[in-house]
Amino acid sequence: VLSHNLCTVLNVPHDPVALEEHFRDDDEGPVSNQGYMPYLNKFILEKVQGNFDKVEFNRMCWTLCAKKNLSKSPLLISDEDAFKVWVIFNFLSEDKYPLIIVPEEIEYFLKKLTEAMGAGWQQEQFDHYKVALNTSREGLSAWELIDLIGSGHFSKGMDKQSVSMAINEVFNELILDVLKQGYMLKKGHKRKNWTERWFVLKPNIISYYVSEDLKDKKGDIILDGNCCVEALPDKDGKKCLFLIKCLDKSFEISASDKKKKQEWIQAIQSTVSLLRAGSPPPHKEARQKRKALRQRLLAEQEELERQMKELQAANENKQKELETVRKQLEAAAARAAEEEKKRLQTQVELQDRFSLELEREKMVRQKMEEQVAQKSSELEQYLQRVRELEEMYKQLQEALEDEKQARQDEETVRKLQARLLEEESAKRAELEKWHLEQQQTIQMTEAEKQELENQRMIKEQALQVAMQQLEQLELERKQALEQYEEVKKKLETAANNTKSWKDKVAHHEGLIRLIEPGSKNPHLITNWGPAAFTEAELEQRQKSWKGKKTASE
């Protein structure tokens, strides 16, 4: 019976064969929830397409559970109102089993009811109730919520009819997605007459009925993103007119007053804007935001609790560490006291030993200072000799540089003189060539004499220019010879300086040696190093050594 009724309400074809096949081995009594749930999911819920009346479905579920769970105590609301509160609970409850409604959603629902009844919201009264609720549990069940609404705790001073109308209004908004409803006049499309209708605005449709009991439906206005609404001027004796334009049809409607007209225009415009943006209805979007906010706050609270636990564990660890350190300090203080006694005992012995060692170190230090003074004097003499030798080495290098520069200047002058001689030879050859051409020109015929005479004059001029250039070259050659003589004198002076330095260096044998251009003869190796002397210098030194040896004998 349950399966057949569910299939009927959900518009799903009933398959009794599948039902019998699923429970064919169950012969021990009533079917358990564990055995029925797989069948419900597989053969009924998976076939649901969404084209069923959700209110009728909720009413069937209410019929199954209300008799068992609804309170037996008298309530200020009817069974129909209790059913609507139960449906609203299913909409606002958390997505976990067992279902409960948290205090934030209870506050939202009660505010909606109070607003619908036209009463003032008592925030302080709810805060006291919320504190008492949080100390005992996380939220209320559906039946506890019905008891809370039916007890009249938050609707004191209101009659039963006002509470029922408020519950119905909130039910229409949250469950039936009714954004606005009310009586207005509608102009007919065929007869063009004006008829009063009960209009109900939902997120994608406006339905109009004969009366507010919603039994006789007369038509729908399908809304989409292309629809628009605009105000119309008064005409035909009708006031507060506005027009709803759709793709295939337009509807002229007259509100009861300007306030109602403006409210309906704004409500329809907001609905069309939500359709264009693809957003859910305002109450569903608000519920999603409240749920996201609760989840974020819960995550932050869990993170804070985790951090507190970590801090508490870290604090306990620190306490243990401090206790360990305290014990270590006490042990260290005991060891330090014992070591202090040993130190006082050995201090006298160490003082005597240090006195003896201090006297010994004074004597050693005095000897070392004498040795350092002697070494310093020797070092100063050695450094003085090294400085003299470095000075001689620098002067010798300067003399060698002067000699090298003089040789380079001599080579430059020689190259210049050779270039001048080559230019002079070339000019002489050119002059001889011109002279030979002149002789040949004289021997030409008389007819060409005048022309040749002119050419001769030109060549004589060129010859004069060449003679001037020759004289200039001769002058440059003489200047080059003079420069050559000067460079030669400088070279002789540098050679004399080098020879005098060689004599000075001979008195400092073993400390320094001359650096001279290498000889083409085979190198000689002496105790001063390879090629330290030429053969002539070596013979001269051998003679000097032999003479000194003979004199000493």
Automatic annotation (TrEMBL):
> Which keywords label this protein?
Cell membrane, Cell projection, Coiled coil, Cytoplasm, DNA-binding, Membrane, Nucleus, Phosphoprotein
| Signal peptide, first to last residue | none
What functional role does this protein have?
Phosphatidylinositol 3,4,5-trisphosphate-dependent guanine nucleotide exchange factor (GEF) which, independently of RAS, transduces signals from tyrosine kinase receptors to RAC. It also mediates signaling of membrane ruffling. Regulates the actin cytoskeleton as an effector or adapter protein in response to agonist stimulated phosphatidylinositol (3,4)-bisphosphate production and cell protrusion.
Which PANTHER family does this one have?
A: SWAP-70 RECOMBINASE (PTHR14383), SWITCH-ASSOCIATED PROTEIN 70 (PTHR14383:SF6)
Cited InterPro entries: EF-hand_SWAP70_N, PH-like_dom_sf, PH_domain, PH_SWAP70
Where does the record say this protein resides?
A: Cell membrane; Cell projection, Lamellipodium; Cytoplasm; Nucleus
- Matches recorded under Pfam families: EF-hand_SWAP70_N, PH
Please name the source species.
Answer: Ceyx cyanopectus
For this protein, the record's PROSITE patterns field holds:
PH_DOMAIN
- Coiled coil feature spans: 283-504
- The gene it comes from is Swap70
Q: How does it assemble?
A: The SWAP complex consists of NPM1, NCL, PARP1 and SWAP70.
Q: Name one GO cellular component term.
A: nucleus
Indicate what this protein is called per its UniProt record.
Answer: Switch-associated protein 70
